[in-house]
Design brief:
By secondary structure, this protein is an alpha+beta fold. It folds into 2 domains: 50 residues, 2,3-Dihydroxybiphenyl 1,2-Dioxygenase, domain 1, CATH 3.10.180; 69 residues, 2,3-Dihydroxybiphenyl 1,2-Dioxygenase, domain 1 (Roll), CATH 3.10.180. Helices cover 16% and strands 31% of the residues. The chain contains 2 helices and 9 strands.
Length: 147
């Protein structure tokens, strides 16, 4: 942050985190397969054939079938990536092998970062960059995460 912007009023209690992502997808069936069958998310609600709401614990992903007139060119997209937290460091490599075996487009091999996190990136069927990451402050496999 380069310059401090004044805050007006008192901030309410903290949020519970960013736990909802909504994605327009050009191939609704392929996206459902990726998030439900491969990533293991459960169907929370499907109000119609073009919309489905998925959850995994406290996270919620909405998949919306892309309207014909919408441009999903990555050059116009502002989202960098979304991520799934993995509870055990060794499971990052298991997820990598599983998704690779399922012909998911892998962007890089798993690596351990300077902060102790371990992750890799892949693409969902719509081209959204997805990170699978063990991150010590968030992963339940880290002894200090529950303290």
């Amino acid at each position: 942050m380069s310059e401090k912007i004044a805050v007006v009023g008192k901030r309410p209690h903290s949020t519970s985190g960013m736990r909802h992502v909504a994605l327009f997808v050009p191939d609704f069936d392929a996206a459902c397969h990726f998030y439900i069958e491969l990533m293991g998310m459960a169907v929370e609600w499907q109000p119609d054939p073009d919309n489905i709401y998925l959850c995994s614990g406290s996270d919620n992903v909405a998949l919306h079938n892309k309207p014909d007139n919408m441009n999903l060119d990555p050059a116009h997209q502002r989202l960098d990536h979304i991520g799934f937290i993995i509870d055990e460091m060794d499971d990052v490599d298991s997820w990598y092998e599983f998704l690779k075996a399922n012909k998911v487009k892998i962007q890089n091999e798993p690596r351990t970062h300077r902060d102790g996190a371990r992750s890799f990136y892949c693409l969902d069927p719509a081209g959204t960059l997805v990170q699978l990451m063990y991150h010590p402050p968030l992963s339940s496999g880290n002894p200090s995460a529950s303290e």
